[in-house]
Design goal:
By secondary structure, this protein is α+β, with helices and mostly antiparallel strands. The chain folds into 4 domains: 96 residues; 87 residues, PAS domain (Beta-Lactamase, 2-Layer Sandwich); 73 residues; 140 residues, 2-Layer Sandwich (Heat Shock Protein 90), CATH 3.30.565.10. The protein is built from 11 helices and 12 strands. It has a 5-stranded antiparallel β-sheet with strand order 2-1-5-4-3. The protein has a 5-stranded mixed β-sheet with strand order 7-9-10-12-11. It is rod-shaped and about 165 Å long.
Length: 431
Amino acid sequence: MSLRFRYFLFMGILHLLMAVGLYYLLKDHKIYFLLCEGLLLISLGISVSLYKKLIRPIELMQTGTNALANKDFTVKYVKTGASEMDRLIEVYNTMIDTLRVEQTRTVEQSYFLEKLIQASPIGMIIMDFDGNIADINPVAAKILSIQLPAKGNPLEHYHHPLIPQIVTLNSGETKLLSVNGYHKFRCQVDMVIHKGFPRKFIILTDLTAELLESEKEAYGKVIRMMAHEVNNSMGAINSILHTVVEYGFSSDDSDPDLKDSLNVAIDRNKSLAKFIDNFADIIRLPKPTMTRHQLNKLLLNASKPWETSARNKNIVFTYKLSKQEVEVDMDASQIERVLSNALKNAMESIGSDGEIIISSQTNPVQFEVIDNGPGISKRIEKKIFTPFYSTKTNGQGIGLMLSREIIENHNGTLRLETEKKSGLTHFTVTL
């Protein structure tokens, strides 16, 4: 039963009773009866006026309640003239203005944060209350190879080497993660309370370029210092040794064994100088001279010289080149150097009796050297791109460093990994 109905029911019954009572009390006094009936009509008028000033505004407030429920903050009221109601209306109108301003500010902030997240150079993933993806910006999607839109899917739904590492991190934990020992990412996982429930968000920062630059600067200083000291010393020592060999053993009674020992020392010094020069090649690597070349033709020409030594070890070269020839801007001599290093490593990995596949494709433009050797273990895979790390007894750990530097200078990517299913090791260059 509404307030308006109850009000009119009460007033109706009250005035009806008053009219009946007046009739029985004053039916013999017509003047007084008519006068009281006039007063009764005035009372009815006052009741209607009270309804308009008290009950009607309350009903109008119901409209405002519905507007608030629908988050419509544009409904306002005009003052009625009754001081009590006008104060209530003034409070309501002020509240509506405040809510409208706050709603606008909240929407603007939400829009700004959304745009900021989408435009951020840092990868961001926001999870919902159930642990599924609520929002992910393009940088994070690119890092994790996630095709947008991804809203509503769990992170484990996607397959990327980083994801198993990310999902094991606890809230508040920050860790440096790596993929194939080459790409480095700083991952930060945190938790916020939203609407009374915890929500996880993940921040991914690609540190590969910064760390590579720091590494290069660090080992470049060491190599330059070593090269300077060793070359200066070796030059002076070899000069003295040549003089001793030439003038100190001219007589017939000279000791031939001592002369041979000095010649061996000279050769060892030359080997040491060459050893240092190999390191210096990394910091002396010139920027690539980019010219147009046919990729398949370059792969064939650069691989042919290795086929003879491969046949001697019973290693077969198989070519799976793209049917469509693709022309690429590159420094041919540097890319040939990368390919030669890959073939050399593949042959050393196989040893004998194996196969090396040289393949290419056009979209994206890339080539691969695939071998069926023993493969790379997970322990070694994390270290293969570490400066000067080598699994070979006499290795210097320079080949992959140099290849990586060349491909980085070509704005390409280099990947070296062993497939779990096939056991084949892929040396993949994307240009």
